[in-house]
Protein 1
Amino acid sequence: MKRVKTVWRPRSYCLSCGICCTATEMILTTSDIERIERLGFKREDFAELVDGFFRLKNVEGRCVFFKDNRCTIYDYRPIGCSLYPIVIEAETGDVTLDRECPLSAATTPEELSKARRLARLILGELARVGNNCG
C-alpha cells in the first residue's frame, strides 16, 4: 500500500512528542480516509463528521491513533499530519507554522515551498469531501 507523502522531514523528537496529536482537529481528505480504511480500520472508529468535513477522532484528548507516545499509523497518517508543524490556513490557502511545535523552527524554506504546492491539492480535495458530506 502507498505511504503518505512527506513534506516535512521528520526529526526523531517528532516521533514521540505528541503535541500535534493532542486535541487534534485534523481534517481528513478522501485519500486519507481510504488509505486508513485499507489498513483495516472502520471509518466510524477513527473519523467524525464536523461542519461537513471528516476529522480525526480524539480519545481522552488525543488522536485515536496516538498510543504509547507514538502514532500507530505513522507511515499512513493523514496528509495534514505529515505536514505538521506546517499548517494550511483555510481562509487564504497559504501555509504557516504552528509555533506550539517545539521543532517548528527547524522547518526549512524549501519545506514551506513544497507545502504551499501541496496545500492547493489538499484544499481541492477537501472541497470535494465537504460537498459530498454536507
Protein 2
Amino acid sequence: MQESIKKVLIVSDTHGSNALYLKLIEKLAPLDMVIHLGDTDGTDQTILMAPPCPVHLVSGNNDYFSESPAEKIITVGKHKIMLTHGHHYYISMGNDVLKGEARSRGCDIVMYGHTHRPVIDTSGGITAVNPGSLTYPRQEGRKPSYCLMTLDDDGEAHFEIFYLP
C-alpha cells in the first residue's frame, strides 16, 4: 500500500474551523494520505472522516480531550517520518531540538505545527516541515497555508507550501 502513495496533504492548526480543510480535500482530490499535525480543538472526527484516504493525526497543545497520540512515526515510501505538534520540543525557538529527536529515532523527515508559520528546512540530513496554519496564520502576509508532499517514481519526497487568498 505504501508504494502507491504519491500525493500527501499536510495541514496543522485548524483550531476547530474546518471549512478550508474540507475545501482542500475536495479541491486536491484524489489524495493518497492526509497528515494533520494537531490543534483540531475537538474536531478530530471531522478531520479523520472527511477524506476517502488514510489520515494520520497527532494531538496538539489545545487538544485537551483528543484520543490521538502526541507523536507518531510512519513510513511513506522509503521515508521514516516523525509526526508531532512540536510544542514539547521548544519549537518556537527553532527546530534544532526537534530535528535531533527525529534523528535519534531514525527518521529522515519530521513534521510539526504549533508555530502557525510554514517551514521547509532540509539542513543537517533531516527535512523538517511545518505546513503553517489554515485558520490562524502568523507568517508575514498572514495567508492560510498547507503543504503538499509528493513522491516521485524513485520514492524521493518533494515538498511545496501553498498559500490561500
